[in-house]
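Structural prep section.
Before we set up the soaks we want a predicted structure of the protein with zinc ion in place, mainly to decide which crystallisation condition to try first. Input record follows.
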Amino acid sequence: MSAHLDFEKANEKYVAGFGDRAHLPIHPGKKLAVVTCMDARLNVFGHLGIKEGEAHIIRNAGGAAKDALRSIIISQRLLGTREIAVFHHTACGMLTFSTPQLRTLVKESDPTNVALNAVDDVDFLEFGDLEKSVREDVTFLRENPLVLPETKITGWVYEVETGKVRQIV
Ligand SMILES: [Zn+2]
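Run finished without errors. Recording the C-alpha cells verbatim:
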C-alpha cells in the first residue's frame, strides 16, 4: 500500500474546484503564523476557521517553537506576519517518550551502523506537561531576540477529544 498512488486522482477533484486561488497573495492576510503539531488528527484550517492565503501553518512534531524558529523568522521578516499562536494538543505523541529512549530505539535498530549515532545530536523536544509546554514555548518566543518585539504571541491547547481550543497564555 502506497498513499501516493491516490494523489493524482484526488488532485483532479481538487483542481476542478480550484476557483480563483491562483490570485491569493503570498503575504498571509491575517499576518498570522500558527505553530502546531504534525499530528494527523489536526485540521488547523478547520478548527481555527482559517482559509488559504490567511496564515502560515508551521507544523512539526509537538508544535515545538524551537523547531519552528527558522520558519518564523522567514514568516516575519520576508512575509510580514506579526502574530504567532502556539498550539499543543491533548494525547500528543510528545507526551509518551523521552529523547534518551528514542535515541536508543534508533541506534538499536541497527547496532552495527555507527552512522546512527548522529541521533545523539537530535533533541526531540518532548514534554511531560502539556500546559507547561505551551507556556514555555510562548516564553521562548517572547524572549527570543530573533522574533520581532512587537509580535503578539498567544499559547493554546487543542483537544483531540472534543475539537475545542483553549487559550493558556
Ligand atoms: Zn502531537
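Observations: The beta strands are 32-37, 55-60, 83-89, 152-158, 165-167.
Flagged for discussion at group meeting.
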